[in-house]
Amino acid sequence: MPKTQLKFISRTTFPYLFPLKIPMKSTLRPLLSCLPVLLGFWVEGAIANPRPTVPTTTPSAYPVLVSQVPVGRQVATQKTTYAPSEPIMVNYANLPGNSGDWITIVPANAPDNSYEEWFYTDGQRSGSRQFKGLAAGSYEVRVYHNWPNGGYVVQDRYRFTVGTQTVTPINNRHISTNKTVYQANEPIMVNYANLPGNRQDWITIVAANAPDDSYGEWFYTQGQRSGSRQFRGLAPGNYEVRVYYNWSAGGYVVQDRYAFTVR
Q1: 176 with 257, same domain?
Q2: Among candidate residues 205, 239, 243, the one with its CA nearest the CA of residue 221
Q3: Most buried pick, 57, 115, 228, 230, via CB within 10 A?
Q4: Residues 6+ apart with CB under 8 A from 28
Q5: Contact between 105 and 111 (Cβ < 8 Å)
Q6: Are residues 93 and 125 in the same domain?
Q7: Which CA distances in Å does 17 have to 12, 13, 36, 37, 92?
Q8: Greatest Cα-to-Cα distance within the chain, rounded to the nearest angstrom
Q9: Is 122 contained in some domain?
Q10: Which residues, given as ranges, of the chain have pLDDT below 70?
Q11: Are 239 and 259 in contact (CB under 8 A)?
C-alpha cells in the first residue's frame, strides 16, 4: 500500500480558512494562532481518493427471474406430465394486458368455446396460477384475449398430460401427419380418420400459434371420412394441422389439431 502522506494546512493550501485579518485583543491572538495546528494535518488521499465501504459478509442469494413460458408463447404449464390430482401450475407471459384476458384448462380436444376452471388475468401481462388437479388424460391450457370482444379465439394453447404420457394413435383421433419432424420444403403428408362425413369438413395447416380462424393451404374432404393428402413443404417453424367440420355451419371450431415441426 502507498505510504500515508501528511500535509500541513496553510493560507496557501486552504485560503478559505484564513479569509480576513480581523483585529482582536492580544489575549485572543495566542489561542487563534493554535487553530492551524489543531486543524493542520489531514490524510492526503483519504480526501482525494475516497473508497466505498465494502461489506464484509456475502449477501444472501438473490432470486433469479427465469421465464417459465417458452419464447414466443403466452402460456405453458410448469411440467408436461402431472400425476392424477396433482395441482397444475400455469405460467403466462407476453399478454396484452387487458382486464378481460382469461385462461382456462380443458380436455385437449374440447371445442374452443369450452371452459372449465378459469380465471381473469386482471390486466397482468405475466404471472402464475395454480389450478386444481385433474383425472388422467390429455389437456390444454388456453389463453383468450379481452373478453367479450375477443370471443372464443384461442390466442395460445399448451398441451400437457395427466397420468402416463402416451401418444394418441391415429384411430383414436381425427388427424395427424406421418412424421413429427420434417425438413424445410419437404412435402407434408396429412392423414385423417373418424370424420363425420360432411362434404365441407375441411383441413388446413397453419403456424402453431395462429388464431383458430386462420388458414393456410387447405382442402375439403368431400364427404370422405378418412384419407390422406399431401401438402407442400414449409419453411422452418412450428405448425399445426387442424380439422374443422361442416363449413360454414361449423364455423372456426377446431375439432382436432396435431402439432409438428419443420427444421
Answers
A1: yes
A2: 243
A3: 115
A4: none
A5: no
A6: yes
A7: 10, 9, 9, 12, 65
A8: 122
A9: yes
A10: 1-68, 70-72, 164-173
A11: yes
Cα–Cα distance for residue pair 263/239, rounded to 1 Å: 11
Instruction: Count up the domains in the chain and report the number.
Output: 3
- On whether the CB atoms of residues 259 and 182 are closer than 8 A, the answer is no
In a domain, 70, yes or no: no
Query: What per-residue confidence (pLDDT) applies to 110?
Result: 86
Burial class (CB in 10 A: 0-12, 13-18, 19+), 43: exposed
211 and 180 both lie in a single domain: yes
Taking Cα atoms as reference points, which of 3, 82, 1 lies closest to residue 44? Answer: 3
Domain of residue 113: give its range.
75-162
The whole-number pLDDT of residue 194 equals 86
155 and 94 both lie in a single domain: yes
Residue at 101 is within a domain: yes
Evaluate whether 139 touches 107 at the Cβ level (below 8 Å).
yes
**Length of the chain in residues, anyone?**
263
Which alpha helices (H) appear in the chain, and where do they start and end?
A: 29-33, 35-39
33, burial (CB in 10 Å: exposed 0-12, middle 13-18, buried 19+): exposed
Domain end position, chosen among 108, 133, 162: 162
CATH of residue 196's domain is 2.60.40.1930
Does residue 30 lie within any of the structural domains?
Answer: yes
Residue 257: the pLDDT is 87
pTM: 0.44
The pLDDT assigned to 148 comes to 93
